[in-house]
Specification:
Layout: E1 2-7, H1 21-26, E2 30-32, H2 37-50, E3 51-58, H3 60-69, E4 79-83, H4 89-94, H5 100-109, E5 118-120, E6 127-129, E7 132-136, H6 137-144, H7 147-153, H8 157-165, E8 172-177, E9 183-188, E10 190-194, E11 198-199, E12 203-204
Helix pairs in contact: 6-8
EC number: 2.7.1.-
Protein name: Diacylglycerol kinase family protein
Region (Disordered): 200-220
């Protein structure tokens, strides 16, 4: 068994991985660029048997697609990340270096660690969220940020998307139901359920706590 590397063929930043070609070849890493969801699913089925570690070269969106294409089977292979996306918020939380060569070395030699996932039920097949699950204003910003904006603005694309969306921020009626059985109805501009520390290319999802503050919210 060997290491496989998945890269997003539609991401311009993924071309940076080509500079690591000699290192990848010496390490015997198999490079794959799935063009369609069906091709990605096929690769992941094969990886369960023939791959000892699956490297993902891309950003948060690429990680999201790969994790959900695994269809809840997370037993193997272990995943590793080479952050080549626009936001790279998951890499920030995990402390993965942004330099591709350093990230590749860590991906190949680092010890796997367990990572929590958020399961999102929408009435159909469950979705899995790795970094944050967000709605409201955050959803508007994500829709406003397309591939062209990302390529032109880089990490500032999310700031540009926020500027385009801030003029019209409606309130959203949401109901939060807790495992204790209680529920809470709120009117919010934004709602983020976080697994990671940041969203939108490094923006903290909550204000930094003041000295001596242990937590911001006590959940029922």
């Amino acid at each position: 068994m060997t290491k496989w590397l998945l890269k997003n063929p539609h991401s311009g930043s993924a071309e940076r991985i080509e500079a690591l070609g000699p290192t990848i070849e010496r390490a015997g890493i198999r490079v794959l660029s799935p063009e369609t969801p069906a091709e990605l699913h096929r690769i992941l089925r094969e990886a369960r048997l023939d791959c000892e570690r699956l490297l993902i070269a891309g950003g948060d969106g690429t990680v999201h697609r790969v994790v959900n294409a695994m269809r809840g089977d997370f037993q193997r292979p272990p995943l590793a990340l080479i952050p080549l996306g626009t936001g790279n918020d998951l890499a920030r939380t995990l402390g993965i270096p942004f330099d591709p060569a350093e990230a590749l070395e860590l991906a190949c030699t680092g010890a796997p660690r367990p990572l929590d996932l958020l399961q999102v039920d929408t009435g159909g097949e469950p979705l899995f969220c790795v970094n944050v699950c967000a709605g409201g204003f955050s959803g508007d910003v994500t829709e406003a940020v397309g591939n062209r904006t990302k390529q032109a603005w880089g990490p500032l694309a999310y700031l540009r998307g926020a500027a385009d969306s801030v003029a019209d921020m409606p309130g959203y009626e949401v109901t939060l139901r807790y495992t204790s059985g209680s529920e809470e109805r709120l009117t919010v501009l934004n709602l983020i359920i976080a697994n990671g520390r940041t969203a939108g290319a490094g923006s903290p999802w909550r204000p930094q706590p003041t000295r001596g503050t242990a937590c911001w919210r006590r959940w029922p």
